[in-house]
Amino acid sequence: MTNKLRQSVLLLLLPLLSFAQDFPLNPMSLADWQAVKGKWSPAGDISIHPLKNQISVESGNSILYASGLAELETVKPFGDLKLEFEFLQSNEAQASLLLGGGIEINLGNSSSGNKPFIGTVKGSSQAPQNVCKATGLWQKAEITFVMGKEGTPAILEKLKINGIIIHENVFNWSLEQKTSPIKIALKKGTLAVRNMAVSEYGDHRPINIGNIKYSLEETFNFKKSEAPDKTPPTTGVLDEITYRVPHDFRQYLLTLKGDLEVEEAGTYAFTIEYQGIAIFAIDGKQIAGFDDFNYRVPSSGLVELSKGTHHFEYNYTKAWWPSGLGLFVSGPTFRPYPLHGVSALPDLQTTGGIFIEPTAEKATLIRSFMEFGDEKKTQVISVGSPQNRHFSFDLGSGAPLYGWKGNFADVTEMWYERGEPQIIKPLGQTITFSGKNAFKIEENSESLKLDEYYLDSKGIPTFNYLLNGQLVSQKLIPETKGMTIEIGSESNMALYLIVSAKQVKNLGEGLYRTSDYFINVPEGVKVTEKKVGDQTELWAVANELQSFEIIW
Amino acid sequence: MKLRNITFIILLIFSLSNAFSQALTEDDYYQIVTIPTPEGVELEVGGMVLMPDGSLAACTRRGEVWKVDNPYMFGGGKPVFTKIAEGLHEPLGLNYIDGKLWATQRGEVTILHDDNSDGQIDRFQQYYQWPLSGNYHQYSYGPEITKDGKKLFTLNLDWIGHGASQTKWRGWMFTLDDEGKMEPWATGLRSPAGFMVNDEGDIFYAENQGDWVGSGRVTHLEKGDFAGNPAGLKWADDPTSPVKLRTEDIPDTGQPLFEAAQKVEGIKAPAVWFPHTLMGISTSDMVQDLSGGKFGPFSGQYFVGDQGHSKIMRMSLEKVDGVYQGACYPFREGFMSGILRMEWGFDQSMFVGQTSRGWAATGRSEFGLQRLVWSGKTPFEIKSITSASDGFILEFTEEINEEKAYNPSSYDIQSFTYKYHHTYGSPIINQREVKIKGIELSEDRKTVHLAVDTMRLGYIFGITAEGITNDKDENLLHNVGYFTLNRINNTVAPLNLDFYAVAEETMEHDHASMDMPTDKLISEKRINEMPASWNGEVDETILIGTVPGLKFDTKLIQAKAGSRVKIVFQNNDDMLHNLLIVNPKTVEKVGQAALNMGLKGPNMGYVPEMEDVLYHTGILQPESSETIYFQAPKKKGDYHFVCTFPGHYTVMNGIFRVK
Prior knowledge:
The complex is a heterodimer of chains A (about 550) and B (about 650).
Chain A: H1 3-12, E1 26-27, E2 33-37, E3 41-48, E4 55-67, E5 70-74, E6 81-89, E7 94-99, E8 103-106, E9 139-146, E10 154-161, E11 164-172, E12 183-188, E13 190-200, E14 207-218, E15 234-238, E16 252-262, E17 266-282, E18 285-295, E19 299-305, E20 308-317, E21 325-330, E22 337-338, E23 355-356, E24 364-372, E25 375-384, E26 389-394, E27 399-405, E28 409-410, H2 412-415, E29 425-426, E30 429-432, E31 439-441, E32 449-455, E33 461-467, E34 470-479, E35 482-489, E36 494-501, E37 505-508, E38 511-513, E39 518-520, E40 528-532, E41 535-541, H3 542-545, E42 547-551
Chain B: H1 3-21, E1 30-34, E2 45-50, E3 56-60, E4 65-69, E5 80-85, E6 93-97, E7 100-104, E8 108-113, E9 123-129, E10 140-145, E11 151-155, E12 158-159, E13 163-164, E14 172-176, E15 182-187, E16 194-197, E17 203-207, E18 216-220, H2 257-263, E19 272-274, E20 283-288, E21 302-306, E22 311-320, E23 323-332, E24 339-344, E25 350-355, E26 367-374, E27 382-388, E28 391-396, H3 402-405, E29 412-418, E30 428-433, E31 436-441, E32 447-452, E33 460-464, E34 480-484, H4 497-500, E35 540-544, E36 546-547, E37 551-552, E38 556-559, E39 564-571, E40 580-582, H5 587-595, E41 613-616, E42 624-631, E43 637-642, E44 653-658
Parallel strand pairs in B: 35-39, 38-44
Antiparallel strand pairs in B: 1-26, 2-3, 3-4, 4-5, 6-7, 7-8, 8-9, 10-11, 11-14, 12-13, 14-15, 16-17, 17-18, 18-19, 20-21, 21-22, 22-23, 23-34, 24-25, 25-26, 27-28, 28-32, 29-30, 29-33, 31-32, 33-34, 36-37, 39-42, 40-41, 40-43, 43-44
């Protein structure tokens, strides 16, 4: 890929950027890797049946795969790095990732619960929970690694698998302090890899701030327009980005303007993290922030900057929270760093956290609010089973929201102090469903109404709804491979939405695959496919379907 | 003197001093028994009901329902805790109706069924449901049962920096009939956690100080009433709404609520005000004593709990021209956490369910379950204060000393009221000393009729009977009551002042400050402008804010001895706070003094007049800030900064290190 093409791809990713740490890495081509053992073949797609372990391959050039004994390594050696890639395993796959010439991270298939779990560092830290997806699903690894230097060990700063942090800050004192290629080693079974991307993680700081001027105006009800006219704005000069400006206003709008000195032309991401309302612009164009109250959810934007002096403007309105504004910059070849002064952004008070694990024989039930995409759902029930398979269900729309394996729930934001967010967070490896109403009657848009739910002897609920006055029911039963969904309906006219997702691939014999999970529909059940926008929906007659499996 | 005589005198003095030193306390009359909770059970009581089998069912803020067997612990045994349900969303109401437990969660009314009778709830029936905004402050309560058998519920407002009604019916009280048909009843509610139906079928609810609410209070709600906070009026246009008022009808002038209610039909003034910090800071549940004497001498009266002050107060009501009014009195302090729920046991003891997570309470435990038991001994108390056409009638539980009864300086009466406006809380306004013109003691010496010089309608009369003693020369256990006067009671004839007038006296004690809002609180210890002599130079600028849970956002601030200090205090909380700089080791002393300021407290910003208070701000509204300038003490040491708003000082303080 040429530089220009790469940069325009990065700019396209603008809306997807959510935090400084997510600065897009440089995609690697297959040519950046070489086979040093065994045979690695290119392919377009690879399918492995989760239960039967059958492999089928489509031709193409976007993935590499191998079977048996094989090793793949980067052509170039690396020092400090950020790496991400996706991998897919067969049932019995045993594999590992090697960094820094000595840190070995387990990439083997531990989906049936066998140890060591995926992500375990050999001879060092165990993975705290099993986040391995089912055979045949793409898994994602994200790694930040720093080489050892004089007096400091090599550090595996962060290892994330399938979105869950597995390790943070694991030291290794015994590695040689030199660059080395990244290596993927396969011992047994089949492993496929794709979407590899890497960044050098240097310590240089090509962007600096200077010449900061501020203007402070009083606000009322957090709006400048409602402020009493009598108080004139105060202005002045600052050494650093901060809110600590002497003033007597009860509420205020602080505008900081200054220079951005750019040593190297390139694409950079600027992230603002603040408590209040903030907008950040460079050279007159808004890069990050929005016109609403925000407590510490970072907002980022990408921008292409030429070498030299640019101008920034940071507008900050204090709300009812204490003041706090921060600015971070990140790029493709260096570690993100703050551009604000030390006192500008208060330490985020982290608590010890309140966590729930199902320990009894029966499932644990928690009802709460929950974030689902852009929405805060207000009638969600989460069920945690002692077998470490859990799900969240939206009682409002009668639809599953999330399923996950591993640790159950983080309820700190529900039961710490007032619990203002009242939000539950899954702790394990999570798949997301569409959240759409699960039942419908053709040509009838009437919504579901919750009647009741009842528990079986294991504490698993069956949800009873009324659709057009008649009963429909759903029961999500956690299992080792994922979950079985049992449905029922008083009327033969009721249809059930099996799945709605961006890509749904039919692998034959009732097996389907989305990007995150498999769906196993009993053979012989008639499944109707419908395209709604960019989603593919699969429907079946509820009383014919009766049950199906989700495997992840 | 002979040795025998000396000994006799010494013994006499000794026995006399013993008699005087054994002052009786609340604990001698009403004992608090703690029901011990097993470790690991977070019994943050949200709702509570006593079951026919002698057990107690409690639902918690963490969504669980617990059955407590043997809660009475008769015979000295232990209670047994069994979790029977979970998965409810912060349920704050529980009742037992027709053999089933009914719980009110944030967004629905749920009937809990145990279909296989194994003691565990296995079916959760959604009986009624309403929309939610996702705002934590949308708490929901009920059911209580009305006199015509309907189920009664209330819904809290949202909090978005001020109260709001972001989804339908927040701020309303409504009923559900047997078919689940919903009928809105009244609105103007802000934080209606405690409400009840009395023996006459009348509905009352307790409100918390907040925006539009000058102080805690209990209001009688009739169909179509508007109780004060206008946020709920958003939904008054609904065809089923019996409320005729609209948002634009509500005045925001600061005139007392009673006056607004006279001018605007539909506004309902409270039956009894609970003066803030004197009678609690966050009124919660209410129960009526219908035991016919099994819970002491207050049969027919009411008990009102307080979350912040971990205490229960007493309330007596009378109805004049169809309008309720009455008084509140101190009753029992010292509960282990914040009181939320109160329920009568079959033996007329009172179970008290408690939680304080998120709002610090005087009782320092995170949660608790206790039982209040009458000892059988009748305390010497003001049994009730009722009104006469010319004043007040105080009935005591015992005969009182005649001489003291007829001495006007045995009493002190202050009248005052609050502002009615959108601001959070209110200072005490229009306070005036009330003179006693006549006194008559009843023949049985248990009742005193006090004729007074003014009977301002809508005002609160704080009546203290400090000088009154009984035949054993004991003082009253509690000597104060606060009477809210809504109507003149012409059925009680005035005193004949030819016989019962008291001598005119010049008042010696200084009047409490009248109508002095605290932003005008002037004191040399409160300098809001940089002193000219500083020439614009400040040595140390310190920013102090607040974080939820009654805390400052810092535990330590520092300055050099004698330096010029500027403190900007930002109140980010949803409550009132102040900031005082006090001498080393005097937080307790100053905090207690602030609590003891009584009616003078609000107007003096809860800043006691003491040498140990060096500098201070006024009382700050939520989301406001104040700047003070001062010179740091010359002597080095660990001074303190503290908020002396009642109930706060024990947790809201930090070190001001002078180096």
